[in-house]
Amino acid sequence: xxxxxxxxxxxxxxxxxxxxxxxxxxxxxxxxxxxxxxxxxxxxxxxxxxxxxxxxxxxxxxxxxxxxxxxxxxxxxxxxxxxxxxxxxxxxxxxxxxxxxxxxxxxxxxxxxxxxxxxxxxxxxxxxxxxxxxxxxxxxxxxxxxxxxxxxxxxxxxxxxxxxxxxx
Amino acid sequence: xxxxxxxxxxxxxxxxxxxxxxxxxxxxxxxxxxxxxxxxxxxxxxxxxxxxxxxxxxxxxxxxxxxxxxxxxxxxxxxxxxxxxxxxxxxxxxxxxxxxxxxxxxxxxxxxxxxxxxxxxxxxxxxxxxxxxxxxxxxxxxxxxxxxxxxxxxxxxxxxxxxxxxxx
DNA sequence: ACAAAATCATCTACCGTCAAACAATCTCTG
DNA sequence: CAGAGATTGTTTGACGGTAGATGATTTTGT
Lengths: 168, 168
Hints:
homodimer, 168 residues, mainly alpha, two-stranded antiparallel ribbon, 2 strands, DNA-binding
């Protein structure tokens, strides 16, 4: 807690007294509160990514849906929601948009008519390939402050926080 | 109970071919998308913390405001916003609540009458001490999956990530 | 077979955050 | 000194995400 050697002088009128402590408090905070540092870093990364993808045809969640469909085949919205950690009610609009763009189809599940079988179309496959290609430089820019090894370490630690078994 | 290998598990149709790929897709995703892993890990940590603090008198942002005031002395809301990375318009309500609880005072800044000099009261100092005491086990639980050394590494990487210059 | 519980997708209400507009005040320039 | 422009605090409205209820459908229990 730094033990406050200074008697907390009142906010100095002009900016002249920027002796540093006040303007650089955020750095001190991150030393004590890893949760705050993690949270702010995440918003910075997300912001950087969404900014670069803003003009594109796909949002991040939409990209993830296409990516999972390509990886595991047709899915119910429930399965997409669970694996991608996107709320069910958000998934509705996400699939709505993708279906409107012709990138997925909603077919009734053959043996459980409560569920849909969301299926990737040919256009969806093409859109995914293009999105994957565009993704690499975007990720690279968002994590530019870290070396490849540091990025790997960060990924390992976040997976551990998520209880995902290491895939080494 | 549950010892029966009976596949009578619900939703048999498509689940039957769950060789694992479908149900564990999230793990595969985190290997390719460190940004998604980071984002989901952050929400998990934040959720854990806010859940444990839900009954308490202070929210996380309020705690941070008291903490910064104790560290650097009286501040304008602008300075609090900048250093804590909390939007100005959010800071208004935050300080409102703290003032209503008698933990801070809003005094007019002596030489800039646009700004307030938000000042910690004696009650605020006491509330902060109590909140600081309660924080350690909460943080420890949120990061329970990591060893102390891993937590330090994560903190170092997130701090490094926060130096990412704004993309222009 | 019939009723009760569970599940999938959807919709609605609510909460927190962010961008833009606003009035009051400061600073700088001519 | 006057006025343009920037800064501080605040309010407003839009947006995105979450929780809870609903309707259709399937599974389970008797």
